Structures are given as structure tokens and as C-alpha cells.
Amino acid sequence: MVLTSQRRDVLNRRVRLFVAATITYNVIEAVVALTEGARVSSTALIGFGLDSVIEVSSAAAVAWQFSAKDPEAREKAALRVIAFSFFALAAYVTVESIRALVGFGEARHSTVGIVLAAASLAIMPVLSWAQRRAGRELGSASAVADSKQTLLCTYLSAVLLAGLLVNTLFGWSWADPIAALVIAAIAVREGMNAWKGESCCGPGLTSGVDVIGDDACGCCEH
Question: What are the distances in angstroms from CA 198 to CA 95, 98, 120, 127, 210?
Fold first, then answer.
């Protein structure tokens, strides 16, 4: 299906709205997580807060792209920022996980952290789904990549929540860093996909030509 200029404008505005919502929530998330993490000496909470900072950079890259009259012209640069954000996230999570496994610091119980992780676990999948749907229809690889970064926050929220709960209930401090290493591997994969996703098969980037074949960026997945 070929997008009309009116529909493309609607989708552009929709992506900007979702990105603004993601940035706003992540700023709040970062402040709460970093403050509480420092208070209770939780490397998991601090890592989660820094992840939120990285996600803001990804969302800001997409916001910058879609603020232009021709968003496609900024597509590649936005994808590079998103890819580097994924790699930075993976590197930090890996380092902090190893530090946690070797016994660096002992986190205390955090009710605030548990509530924050649960809230993110509920909110982030909705934001990710909405942005990915608009990005696929528009044919924007960067919007889809940013939605995957938002979805990754859901996984990190689950890891954080599990780690905080296990630490509170059983005192098993090793569960969180093990799961976080899996998240780091996922982040590396998504970063590589964003780095390679120079274009998308949707009508927004194909000038009305329907593309049939491999969809490297994942825009056309259903």
C-alpha cells in the first residue's frame, strides 16, 4: 500500500509523540533509579538508571530525525546513534554484572526500586508496540530500532524486578547479574541490527514501491 502525504504526516507526528513520551518517562525513570540505587548501594538499580539515560539518547536521535522536513535524509545517522546506544548499554551491563558476580557491594532492600521496575514492566511494552507499529507503516528503520530499544527496557525491568525480589525474599544476589548478561547479549544483537538497518521496506522509504524480499530491519514483521 502506498502512503499518501497526509497519512505520512500523521505517522510522523505520531512517532514524534511516542518518542516524546518515551523521553519523558525515561528521564523520570533515570532520576528515580540513580537516586535510589545510590541510596541502597544497588548496582542493578544504578545500571537500570544509566540504561534509561542511554535510551533517552536513542529516542532523542529519532526525535531529531523526525523534526526534519525530510526524515529519511537523517535515517542513517539516527540508526548509528541507536546502534552505539545499544553497544554502550551492553558494555555497561556486562561490566556491572561481572562486578556483582565477584561480590562488589551488597545491595539493600528497595521498595522504591521494586515499584519502579514493575511500573516500567507495564508501561514500556505499550510504548514499544505503538512506536513499532507506526514505524513499520511509515517504513522507518530508526523508529523501529528505537522501539526495540524501548522493548529492551522491558526485559531489563523484568531482570531488575526479579533481582530485587529474589534479593529481598531469599538473599540470592547472583540471580540478577546472570540474567543481566543475557540482556547484554540481546543488546549487542539489536545494536548490530540497527547498524545494518539502513532502510526499511515500508512505503514511507520506498517512494511508493512495494518491496518483496528480506526485511533486514524487521519493519515488516507481523
Answer: 30, 34, 30, 23, 17
